[in-house]
Amino acid sequence: MVAAPVSLQFLPGKATHAWAYHDGAAPKATGTVPGPRLELNQGDHVMVHFRNDLPDPTTIHWHGLRVPNASDGTPVAQIPVEPGATYDYEFDATDAGLFWFHPHVASDVQIERGLYAPVLVRQADEPEVTTERVLVLDDVKIEANGELSTETDALDVMLGRQGNVLLVNGKRAPTLTARAGSLERWRFVNVANGRYFNLAVPGRSLRVIGGDGGLVPEPYDAETLLIAPGERQDVLVDIGGAPGDVLRLQTVYYDRGHDIPDVGPLDLLQVEVDQPAAPRLPLPDTRSDFVPLQVGDATPIVHLVLSEDESSSEPRFLINGEEYPNATPTQGAPGDIAIWEIQNDSEMDHPFHLHGMFFQVLDIGGVVTQHGGWKDTVNVPLKETLRFAVQYGDAGRWMYHCHILEHAERGMMGELVLAGE
Ligand code: C2O
Ligand code: CU
Predict the structure, then answer these.
(1) Nearest ligand, CA 349
(2) Closest to 342 (Cα-Cα) out of 320, 314, 313
(3) Tell me: the pLDDT tens digits for 157-171?
């Protein structure tokens, strides 16, 4: 895997100078946004030889994958890879699901420039569908000349940069074709710096079968489906219809605080329903054998308060009043079970991400959450307290942070230190 500058086009006829990944083993490969998708089978052993051809130091973090600490790609787990240098990442694909990789150095700048790619880990018995698609959601802030904006204004910092061009798999409002009557599986990852996507397909409901850490215990139907930065969603869409029908995937308003305006539904892609009709498939049984963690009154609690400090011209984002890297680490031991209580005292939502292990959301504001499943990133609504249960993984230094990248890089980050024997 090579990271390098590249010239591509997000708007027709206009060059955009981006940073992108390409397969260094493929002759003449050039960078794409998203980068090359890694397709793995559960249990695979993976080695990624990485070379940095960027002008800046970088790393690769494997978001959601339970990798050894030395392959986690954070600056506390490795020395960032200097321009021209290499690093080997090595891990097992322990869990099936959709994951992604991205830099963990100046992530607000480097991911925005195009450094991200999906990792799909398949299990032995995937549900039977007509078509499966991986849909990587992003937005970019593009100047009239086609170039990525290099300005970070106050609003970008406050809400996380929201672009003016929405991208699905690096394309603006692409058109897909689907066979009439087909059952499609759409697997989403939100790689945007700050945008929340609230997905809807008018006239269809979305059957949610999975999330960050694979299939959910009980599938459910949703009219709209929120996907915060860093999160994944896995849905079945009953395309139905007749040839000539057009379905739209949209993102609709979601109020995440700070009086963010409702600009109405925005199209992400359209689906043209086509011949020949697909054989009708039954809804697959996708329930997972999810075993909840056992927690009780004796389970230790980690209490984290998320806040914003707007007293100076440049707002800061804090955890327990501290600004990373000047922050007190959370301590634990591998294998321990703990409850994390994330209290959001700020005026907006924050998507909280923990590296290296999955957690199970217990409740939000004391109300038990309806839909379970393993997660690594969860939206903590403004002025709410969310609790999750987690069993700690391997020894090492594991980061946690808001996945609004402007916030993470401005203090809203911390470290879980798991000491080995
Ligand atoms: Cu997707 Cu620490 O990040
Ligand atoms: Cu945040």
Answers:
(1) 2
(2) 320
(3) 999 999 999 999 999
